[in-house]
Amino acid sequence: MELRISLPLLASIGPLIFALWVTVGVAGAAASGRGRVSILGSGSSFIYPQMSAWIPEFTRMNPDVVVNYNPTGSGTGQKQFFAHLVDFAASDPPLTRDAWLRHRGRVIQMPVVLGAVVVTYNLPGGEGLRLDGRALALMYKGRLRYWDDPLMRELNPGVELPHREIVAVHRSDSSGTTNVFTFFLHKAAPDEWPTDLVGKSVEWPVDSKGNGVGAKGNQGVTQVIMSTPYSIGYVELSYALENGLPMAKIRNADGQFVLPSQESIREAARNSFPLMPRSPLDDYSLDLDALVYAPGGKSYPITSFVHLILWTRYEPGKAEALRRFIRFVNTEGQGMIVRGYAPIPEEIRAVNLKAAGLIKP
Amino acid sequence: MDARDLKEKIFLAGAALLSLLAVLPVFHVLLSVIWNGLGVLMEAGPSFLTGVPPPPNGGLGGIAPSLAGTLLLAVLSSLLGIPLSLFAAIFAVEFPDNPLAKGVRVLSKALLEIPSVVVGMLIYAVVVVPMGRFSMLAGSLALAIMMIPYVTTYVEQALEGVPFTYREAGFALGLSRPRVVFDILVGIARRGILTGILIGFAKVLGETAPLLFTLGRDRYNVPLGPLDYGDSISLLIFDYAQTPYANMHRVAWGAALVLTALFLIIFLVSRRLTEEVFL
Lengths: 361, 279
Fold this sequence. Notes:
The complex is a heterodimer.
Chain A: H1 7-32, E1 37-43, H2 48-61, E2 65-71, H3 74-82, E3 88-91, H4 97-102, E4 107-122, E5 130-131, H5 133-141, H6 150-155, E6 167-171, H7 176-188, H8 205-208, E7 212-215, H9 217-227, E8 231-236, H10 237-242, E9 249-251, E10 257-258, H11 262-272, H12 287-291, E11 303-311, H13 316-330, H14 346-358
Parallel strand pairs in A: 1-2, 1-3, 5-9, 6-7, 6-8
Antiparallel strand pairs in A: 3-11, 4-8, 4-11, 9-10
Helix pairs in contact in A: 5-7, 13-14
Chain B: H1 3-44, H2 47-50, H3 64-94, H4 99-111, H5 116-131, H6 136-160, H7 164-172, H8 177-188, H9 190-205, H10 209-212, H11 233-241, H12 246-276
């Protein structure tokens, strides 16, 4: 079979078709205005699985709306939100006070789901570990080096602790998980863990002692701990649950040792409520301070929020769609929380629902 | 057996062993994709190609919007990228002394090494931010830029490989310059040109980084218009592999197998085409 084609002609057709596609598509979109309202969010990768559970259910209930979410990271999400590329952002940390002041009255924030950072370990022959902020701070400073350290024995009566060196695993990449964990260390043991060791990526003192190991992502830390006997580390609750890792009981502000669970996480949020904002228009920048190491005997102390960030003004179709999405997230949505997250308590939902009345065309 | 035979045997065995070592990782990747992906495809059935992705711990669902997005993006970026590369390469080979042509040659080779995420950021700054939205248009432009240096370089090399005597013969027959170039040179170099085109096509099929900040990742609707958000299989794999949920990992493996199958199809088609098409 012989096929003869004029190459210049053939090659010119390509860009023509492309141009036609763009013109017809843009003109068509402008003319018809589209049947369905399309909403796009961007930000926290931590909340992505929960969003993947919410979005199909929400669009099933609201067939005239399309919602999508890009897990780009909390910081990127905020940038894209302020550049008006996306309609809402999801962010582990709330807006800083400065950012909130710049957009005061025009920007809405709300915590929509809770997560927890758990301390997991690989201790052959030992389980049911109990830890407090001081012991963890000393481990990550490299000053508590052995599993059978007197402090560890005092915390864990009855647990057989070997005379082995502790390998302290931490994140090597910048991470909200590290921020929450180091913030907890500072709040629970301020003498041992100063503020300059709090942040998304820190200079871990244990590394200079040779007993620290960095790993990328929650997945990386999980892998290192599973394959390294006598190691300890911190990951998001969902990674510990899905991989069947042991979780340590952590001493909370009331001196009780508490396992991470939906109940103990929600309890922490409930006990933080007196210090939480009362309107979605308020400054949320200190809410992690209220939530981490919250009072209450049943509160799990290393807990964090994920926030939605929205504008108060949208074009009419989007305003209505986002109002419905906010109502959904704070009502039905809280009944379909994925394993590894916890629903927010009723008190906070009631504050969040005020946002539906604040969004206007 | 004398010493020379022995030396040769040792050398051959060494060479074979080393080449095996070189291709081993490739086979390992290929086999683990097939091993992990096949079970997913068998369990999910044809709906893996027609359904939408599942929630965490919620079965397997499908990857239809991402699959459609990947194919559409590859076709759209080729419509733009391949003709541009063809003409750029022909220009660079036909007018080697022209300063612009020299620039084309240098640039196309330099751009081969450009990190793909930079192309993504460029389109983000130049197209996405001014338009105020992520879109299929932005994604296909990013991929077109990705493919141009590859295709241009391959086509240049294919054209340069044609012996000068064929050109002389063409002119001796009284053919005009365009006819010599398009009928004789391109015809003789067609295998190399097609290979370059298909490598460019395959290249954009698997790209992730240029799409991270251009596409909008709509995983539930098949994209059609230039302003629609879109998704690609590579982005889906990228996002799902990072979640802790086993079913999402399995969807990512299944998607990886689909992508691998697309590559295989392209290369089989390209083998057939180079044997049959006369340009």
